[in-house]
Amino acid sequence: MNSEIITFFLAMTPINELRGTIPIGILIYNLKPGLVFFLAVLGNIVPAFFLFWFWKKGARFLMDKSQFFNKIFNWLFKILSS
Predict the structure, then answer these.
(1) DSSP alpha helices (H): ranges in 13-32?
(2) CA distances from 47 to 18, 24, 59 (A)
(3) Which DSSP state fits 15?
(4) CB 38 within 8 Å of CB 45
(5) What is the pTM of this model?
(6) Do the beta carbons of residue 34 and residue 45 sit within 8 Å?
(7) In whole angstroms, how far apart are CA 38 and each of 13, 21, 35, 42, 75?
(8) What is the pLDDT of residues 8-40, one digit of tens each?
(9) 14 partner at 20 to 30 Å CA-CA among 20, 21, 51, 72?
């Protein structure tokens, strides 16, 4: 697999993120630091889009299943809407 793609996907992992991906990309794959930084930041941002995309569905599911989460999300959404 291409070292740029591996660097991008490494940044998506919660354990590695940027702190591990940047040194790996530079020291192991011998990529340019600017390219590694760009790929690592981009790879680190991508999972956030999916989290925000499913946030409302996940919150609604938890609110329907648990009174505890219902209270928490009602409180959170009240704060965010004001």
Answers:
(1) 17-23
(2) 13, 20, 17
(3) T
(4) no
(5) 0.68
(6) no
(7) 16, 11, 5, 6, 37
(8) 999 999 888 889 999 999 999 999 999 999 999
(9) 72
